[in-house]
Design a protein that fits this description.
The N and C termini lie far apart (about 55 Å). The chain has about 475 residues and is an alpha/beta fold. α1 crosses α3, α4 (about 160-175) crosses α5 (about 200-215) and α8 (about 250-265) crosses α12. The strands form 3 sheets. An 8-stranded mixed beta sheet has the order 5-4-13-11-12-10-8-9, sandwiched between helices. A 3-stranded antiparallel beta sheet has the order 1-2-3. It has a domain at about 155-290 and about 305-465. The protein is built from 14 helices and 13 strands. β1 (about 125-130) and β2 (about 135-140) form a beta hairpin.
């Protein structure tokens, strides 16, 4: 009986798939003495928090104060009250009962991600599509990964620019506080997409900058210095971004910080200590194979590999108090144990933690870094996306205080934001976002049109849900 062409094709496909799985499995086994090493980086299992902090600190007895308390129930700034309830151990029992099932589900999903990514790598694919199109992963010309939507369309930035200009005008009118817009870079400033693919984020950023500059807003485009770095030394420029994550590395954030300091010194009368902007003034501690970033988690370690992670520690003396009021965090001591969270390198899993948050801790609603050694410096408020996490600790070295707000967690409208500005009394407000962030409505809840659009979208969704 003759075999149909479709049946034969299917048999060849299944044979190829089986061969790829066997290849991947044996490769993983030979390298790690176990299947799919995705649970914990091998280096960190022997480390403790105390070991890491002692290694990175200026001295072994460097103070680390870490207190967690319930957030305040009301401070007049529109924050939601948080109630803590003791349910007689019910919560603990619930976690004990459900955690094994959740972990089993996660492990199964991670295994699928690893196998799927490994097969894509074996097939030589540079585009790995995701169920959610905005998380489709693309391998750039130099091996860096990036997100790219295959159905992407350029967004008109006119409304967004007008929103920001109106906000700036109100700030200047009510508080006479200057505002600086900083355009963070992206991987496409140091690498290129595969032939035939287009990303509009840079074009959108170009239009946005042109419009706000025409409206009188001062700007700093960090993309320029990153592009120059790529032209001068293409290979070195790749080290400015993580291979598996969308963020810049500490080295990239430091380059952005240096460029920003030049601007602040020239145009805003900041006193910048040259020692603090010299990379040679910092010890760099390299932790190998510890980070699987946002893009890597979509395709797995077999496709993406894993990133090393550097922790920068000043060689000079530092002293900070770092607080996150809404979650009751307060840390005191040298730069590396107050503004950074190096203990997060201990006992971490690729899919369970995010080492990028070692810098600043997380995307908190509000964080405050007070420089105890610079009581006469400037006070800066930064409204930023997650790129600011790695930059703000460095900036704090040259300020009296750096306050950072992530608008995605912001609880209110423009009036509430103005209350925050009135309370914090900054000498300068910096708004900083990556190019892709400009179209994210949640990053601009304090801008009138963005808030109106968000409410209209929510109302439409609710109306459609009732049909």
């Amino acid at each position: 009986m003759p075999i149909r062409r479709n049946t034969l094709t299917a048999l060849f496909f299944l044979a190829g798939l089986l061969a790829a799985v066997i290849y991947l499995c044996t490769g993983a086994l030979s390298q790690s003495q176990g299947f799919l090493p995705v649970d914990k980086p091998a280096h960190s299992t022997a480390r403790t928090k105390a070991d890491i902090i002692a290694q990175l600190s200026d001295r072994e007895d460097a103070p680390l104060v870490l207190r967690k308390a319930p957030p305040p129930l009301g401070d007049g700034l529109g924050l939601k009250a948080v109630a803590y309830m003791d349910l007689g151990g019910q919560t603990d029992r619930f976690i004990e009962d459900t955690e094994p099932a959740i972990q089993e589900l996660l492990d199964r999903d991670r295994t699928f991600i690893e196998l799927y990514g490994g097969i894509q790598r074996a097939a030589g694919r540079r585009v790995v599509e995701d169920v959610d199109p905005q998380y489709t992963v693309v391998k750039l010309s130099d091996g860096l990964l990036t997100f790219a939507s295959l159905e992407n369309e350029q967004m008109d930035m006119t409304n967004r620019a007008q929103e920001l200009l109106e906000f700036v005008q109100r700030v200047k009118k009510e508080y006479r506080t200057p505002v600086l817009y900083v355009q963070a870079p992206s991987k496409l400033d140091v690498s290129t997409l595969p032939a035939g693919m287009t990303d509009y984020a840079d074009a959108e950023a170009d239009q946005f900058l042109e419009l706000v500059e025409a409206g009188g807003l001062d700007t700093l485009d960090l993309r320029t210095v990153f592009r120059e770095a790529a032209r001068e030394d293409p290979k070195a420029a790749l080290e400015l971004f993580f291979r598996t994550d969308h963020h810049w590395t500490p080295a990239g954030a430091f380059l952005g910080y240096q460029t920003l300091c030049d601007k602040l010194e020239k145009d805003y009368r900041f006193k910048i200590n040259e020692e603090y902007t010299d990379p040679d003034s910092f010890d760099k501690f390299l932790f190998q194979d510890v980070f699987l970033g946002s893009q890597g988690r979509r395709v797995g370690t077999l496709y993406a590999g894993v990133d090393d992670f550097e922790v920068w520690s000043p060689k000079f003396s530092t002293s900070f108090t770092y607080t996150v009021p809404i979650v009751g965090i307060e840390r005191e001591g040298p730069f590396v144990v107050s503004l950074l969270f190096p203990e997060r390198l201990a006992d971490t899993g690729y899919y369970d933690t995010n080492p990028y948050t070692i810098y600043s801790g997380d995307d908190y609603l509000l964080s405050r870094a007070v420089n105890e050694k610079n009581p006469n410096g400037k006070r800066v408020l930064i409204l930023r996306d997650s790129f600011g996490c790695a930059l703000t600790p460095f900036l704090a070295l040259n300020c009296q205080e750096v306050m950072a707000i992530d608008p995605r967690n912001f609880n209110g409208n423009q009036d509430t934001m103005m209350d925050y500005i009135d309370w914090l009394e900054p000498d300068l407000i910096i708004v900083m976002n990556a190019p892709s962030s400009l179209k994210v409505e949640k990053l601009f809840p304090y801008l009138p049109t963005a808030r109106t659009n968000a409410k209209a979208e929510k109302a439409t969704e609710e109306a459609e849900g009732k049909r």
